[in-house]
Predict the 3D structure of the following.
Amino acid sequence: MPLKSRHIALSVGITSLAVISFQLVIMQLLSISQWHHFAYMVISMAMLGFGAAGTFLALFREWLKRNFDRALPVLYLLCGLSMALTVRLVGIFGEFDTFLLFFDRSQLGLMSFTYLVYCLPFFFGGLAITLVFYYEVRHIGMYYFFNLAGSAAGALVIIWLFWIVPLPLIPPLLALLPLLAAWLVRIRSRRFTVVAIMSLLVPMMGLLYPAKPVISEFKAMYGSLQLPDAEIIYEESGPYGLLQVVHAPAQRFAPALSLQYGQEPPVRDILFNNGQYFGTLLGGLGVNADNPADKLDAGENRLNGGEKNRWNAGEKNRLYGGGGSGVDRREDNASARHLLDYATRGLPFALRHSKSVLVLKAATGTDVSHALAHDPSRVTAVEPNRQSNRLLTEYHPEWIDSLYLDPRVSLYGNSVRTWLSSDPARKKDLIVLPVIGAFGGTSGVHALQEQYHLTLEAFREMYGRLTQEGMIAATVWSAYPPRESLKLLATWRVLLEELGENAPEHHIMAIRNWGTVTFLLSRSPFTVEEQEAARTFSRNRSFDPLILTDIDPEERDYFNIAEDRMFFDHVDSLLYGDHEAFFRDYAFNVRPATDNRPFFSHFMSIGSIPVLLEQYDVRELPYMELGFVMATVTLVQIVLASVILIILPLFRVGWQGTRRRWTFLYFSGIGIGFMFFEIVLIQKLVLYLGQPVYATAAVLAALLFSSGAGSYVSSRFRSDYQTLLRTGGAIVLLILLYAFLLMPLLDVSMSWPLQARLSKVVVLLALPAFFMGMMFPFGLRRLSGSNETQIPWACGVDSCLSVSATALATMISLETGFDLVMGVAAAAYALTTLASLRLGDVGDGGSN
Amino acid sequence: MLPKRFFSPSLIILFTLLIAIQVVPVAIAEPANDEEEERYDRLREQMVNRQIVARGVDNRPTINAMRSVPRHKFVRSGERRRAYLDNPLPIGHGQTISQPYIVAYMTQLINPEPGMKVLEIGTGSGYQAAVLAEITDQVFTIEIVEELGEWGKQNLRHAGYDKVQVKRADGYYGWEEYAPFDAIVVTAAADHIPPPLVDQLRDGGRMVIPVGSPFRTQNLMLVEKRGEDIRTRNLMPVRFVPFTREEE
């Protein structure tokens, strides 16, 4: 009995929903066990399963078409089974670890096996859906609609699942959906019924005994768990990640504390998100807990030990004009009210009394705690992770001594930029940024992460939010070669230049110790008294001033001596010299990050490699910027795999098919154009909507659903040259318009309520996505008339190029910014439009 | 009597594999024969000449120590043939045995001499302690991770460094009982310098701390104590070259 088309359509929709949800849950699981760049790498390769499906179909299309009724449910079954088993299968030969990839050759084998395992659900799901497209090409509009609408629903459903279902249970739960699809299109035979019921047992077992992700031994949380008597005391998964709190008696909070802090630092629990450090649950500890002045006095005694401290006393007096006077000490003691006053981060509080403090990306509130110790009238904390906010305000506020419930504190669960763009009249005396980098460096694992709170535009908005006496404070972990600190300084220098301040050294101050550098950017010039206060603060803690208007070069490394003093020269070049020349000449990219290229932690370039090779072993280089290296590796792997998958079917179906090159150009243009457009839109709209998790889901759903609607409506039109040219032309025009007008259009409504902004986004996305959704079914219908054998191959080309496009878009964004990506999207659709002139024939002869 | 099918070929293969899995690691762990030891000696000599002396380490006791310690006895059994390569090697628990040059450079930085009392924080594989033990009899090492501590202790004993004192404890507190120390080598650094370690450093003593990720030491921090004055010194483990291009 032939399968009913509505059952087939429903099975396509359900499987598409499961596949896209599975993709997002795997991303989450891999981000926990590894880093997000590895998740991106694996998922990109796994998505090639769709391309492989097209290739497979091209090679075995006759057999699969003949056995469509039997093949379809079996493919759905295999898709479901592989979904349920991947997480368990992937570790059977040992766990792959990105960190070991460049030191252990066996990791290459494990990496390939990981790709293969994760590829399977996408391959079987993709093969089932492509088979439907091929078999039912006359109704492609409807099936493509179900495919895209199912994917759109998947993007939304997974967010809901993240909130209500523990993460390890989601893959087996999703695996039930393809099994349901198989049941919808089942064969009426006892054997199939038995197999289907047996298959159900696999996800059921997964639900009973869920496989948990194994965390890399090079992640911060693994290190914490190695401490004696360490335990995870809280765990909660959600769309923002897996939050875990680790308690360990040897876990201390003392980030780059002064050597003059003679007390034992507090033992505190740490909150991790996806295995990465999120924040220490410091709470009110250190806020006038005991007599801080005593601590500082004790510290000062270690340094200014009277008779005991004879070494270089004369030199110190020369540099500091007599050492810490009694007045200096008294003034300084007044500011030493918190543990962090013994870190360079204490500087802004030692200079001015800030009544109104804004803490950006507040995490667990350590900077809020620090600010509260200095008698502010208002502390505003902005932390976009609503999951952690809920944990620390509703479930366990006591873990941070109810800091966020303090009447002086307001906590906002928005992105930094959303907060900054709302109500610009609210001015702040001090804006505190989260600490940049990590002790010992981050190995560049964040190179691919957009950091919109560190772009030139973000600092411009922050500067606009300062009172006349206001300051921005940013602390950076020292790294060698110096990068983060120079990029921050470069950003502030360019900003001040834009604002017409020609003497940046009057507005920027910095001090350093053995581990960190704290930079201050003040709206009004620093006074002589404030510069002296900074010296006193530094001296009492064995810190060194780095930027002061009247700095003596020797003061810069009095306590913390630098063998390579070039860092100081670089600072001076950026501050006083031709910064453009410095950007050009420095081996790393330290140009300010912008909203068009918001990768603050991306420094490496191909040009820097020869310089680095003079100093470092080639195997060490990846650890300079693992994210960038992995993105490059991903691109190379995907392009190679795509080429193989696209060429392979040609050996069977022949190289000389009718107008094959036009088929290739048409479908590759669609694959590249759609993905490039989608990636840029997600980036820009995430910034606009402010909530990365929800925004990505909403944008993806709106885009896919509108495309699906376009696909559905496409069946009412003839797929002739004129229709294709008009549709393609409209897409190119819209992309170009969006490239120039989207951000100005969005900027005017940045302060609207979220629902209003969301509605605006849906409206803006609907039109281009609608037209884009038409091009794929138009193309397939044209092929169905004259080159039907090319249909599976065309699907494969579209899938392979879509996946390659994600990797390529990342690289282009890193190197040149999003604008070019948008330009390439327009060019790709222009190519598709031109290729349509020579593509196949009008297959259906008109509307359905 | 067992049924005939019990001895099917697939079962025989399975049991053979199971036995092999048990036996192979033991066979690998067997002590290397003389020929192998000679090969390791040659590799070690090459390591010292090409990786250490050629890069400017010139402290004689350090070079001699690096020449003497059988590094291959301080790595995981599967990594032995790579023991003398110019890179760090993973030892599990998120830790590595440092690149030979870094071990030599750190050792040189503390100006090691016979009779010095040296404390190491982070025993790991025990290699750094063994190098120190070649120079002085008073080496104390602390490891916080129990399994690593046991393994490091075992490695030291197998390689004949019985005098090294190993303790499983929180390195934050140092080893008060044997303080003060002439030098402290912190191989497992945290984001702070523990005051007890500074206190347990003898006047004029040196503490060396590598800073970086497991596979890349970006710099070494030397903490010098003179009376009450404590200073830190940032040292480059590499020959540093300018990162800015030459002006044309």
Notes: The first helix of chain A runs from residue 5 to 33. Chain A touches chain B through 68 residues (CB under 8 Å). Residues 288-331, 843-848 of chain A have pLDDT under 50 and may be disordered. Residues 289-336 of chain A form one domain.
